[in-house]
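Q: Here's a chain of 529 amino acids. Please give me its 3D structure as C-alpha cells.
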Amino acid sequence: MTERLDARRPDAPTLSAQYQPGEVEQRRYEQWVAGGRFRASAQSDKPPFTVVIPPPNVTGSLHMGHAFEHTLMDALTRRKRMQGFEALWLPGMDHAGIATQNLVERQLANEGLSRHDLGREKFVERVWQWKAESGGAILGQMRRLGDAVDWKRERFTMDAGLSRAVQTMFKKLFDDGLIYRANRIINWCPRCLTALSDIEVEHTDDDGELVSIRYSDDVVVATTRAETMLGDTAVAVHPGDERYQHLIGTEVEVPLTGRHIPIVADEHVDPSFGTGMVKVTPAHDPNDFEIGQRHALPALTIMDERGVITAPGPFQGLDRYEARPAIVAALREQGLIVAEKRPYVHAVGHCSRCKTTVEPRLSLQWFVNTAPLAKAAGDAVRDGRVKIEPAELAKRYFAWVDNMHDWCISRQLWWGHRIPVWYGPDGEIVCVGPDDEPPTGTGWHQDEDVLDTWFSSGLWPFSTLGWPEQTPDLAKFYPTSVLVTGYDILFFWVARMMMFGLYAMDGRQPFDVVALHGMVRDEHGKKMS
C-alpha cells in the first residue's frame, strides 16, 4: 500500500488555500516557449494561418483593451494550431515617432538639456538607449498574458529589415510618381513642431467666440479666429447669392492692415451661414486654401511654427492667443465690431500627444498620391478578396477610401525613418533606394524630415515576413489570414495596409478577413489609452 503523505511532517510540501497563478504561469509559459510550442515553420506542408499583432507603441504599456484584443488573437491562433494549421502569430512593436521623441525630450529637459544640445546623431543614440533599457515593458506583459506568439519572429518598425522595407517602398512610390513634394495645408502642432496625421488630432467642442467684423458698409464677415484676418487675401460669397452680385469683382480693404483684397464668388460658401460672406485666409485654413487655389489667390503666412504672429505691424511678436483679443480690441476701438458671441461652442483640433491646439499651416511637405492606391483598396473589399467583420462597418470603410485626400507623410522629427531624398547644390532631387549610394560632393544634403509612423506600420503584414526579399516566410504566410484590431483605426491603419499591400504584392491582399472589435471604455466613455 502506498504510504499516505503525512501533511504534518516538517518537510511536507505546503499547499496554498487558493490557487496562486504567479507560481505556475511564468514557469509553464517559459516551458512552452523553450519547447517551440508557438513556433511556425515555412517548410511545413500544413495549411498556413497567419495573424500579425497590431504593433503597440514602444512607449506604452498594455491595458485592458490590449488584453481583450490579445485574448481574441490568442484563442484564434491556438484553435487553428490544434486544427492542424501551421499557425503563426507574429509579435512586434511600433517605434511611435512623436510619442517616443517627446518622452526622451522630457528626460533631457529634466537634465537641463534639449535635443539640439546633443545634435541629431547623439539624440537618436539616446533614443535607442532608452528603447533598450525601458522600451520592453510591453513584451514582458505579453509573456505575462501568455500570448502564443512566435518570439523568434519578433519585429520592430525601426529594425534593419523593416527600415530596408520602408526605403524600398518610398523609392518605388517615388519612381512611380505616387510621392510628391508640395506646399499644402497640414495639421501642425506648435508645441511638437511637426506635421500631424489626422489620427494624431483629437477634436473637442470648446468654448470660443464668434466675432462679426465690418470690412466696409457692404461687407461683414464672422470669424472664430480674428487673428487670421492679418492673412486675408479675399472675401468670398456664393455665386448665386443675389445680395452680393454687385460686389463680385470689386475690392475691399482689410481692417488694421491697409491691404485691399478682391471679393470672389465660390460655390463653397454657404449663403445661409452668418452674413453669407467669408474671409479667405489660404495659408491658415484648409477650405480657404482650396478657394485660394481656385481663384489664384496669394497665401500669406502670418504665424511662425510656434504660433507667433509674424505679420508686420503692432501685433508682430504676439502669441496667437495674445493677438486674438488685441486685434478684437483694436477693431472695437475703430467701431468695426458688429457683433460678439461668447461663449461660442465649436470643434477644435488638439495634438493627441501634448493637447496643444493644432494650427492649420501652409507647409512644404511630402505627400502620397492616394487616388489609385485607395481605389485598389476599395475594390479588394467590393470584389470579396477581403471581408470586413462586422459587415456593416464596410460602409464606413468605403466612405473613407472613396474620398481619401492625399496623405502627408513627412514629420519634422529626428526619431523615425529619415526621408531617403538628397538635394543638390543646383536644385537636383535624388531619391535613394536601400542598395543605392547617396550622392556625394559639395552642397548635397539629405532631407531633414522623417516619415509618418503610419508609413512603416502600413507595411507590417509583409515587411515583417521579409519583404522586399522573397523569403520562404513571405511565400508561406502571406496573405495573412485575419487582422484583429479596433474599429477606431479602420481608416488610419487598416486602409494604409490595404493600399500598400495591394501595391507592393502585385494585387494580393494583406489579409483575408478584418475582424473589428469594440473599445474598452472608462466611466466617461473614453477608450483606454
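Q: Can you summarize the key feature?
A: The CA atoms of residues 39 and 491 lie 32 Å apart.
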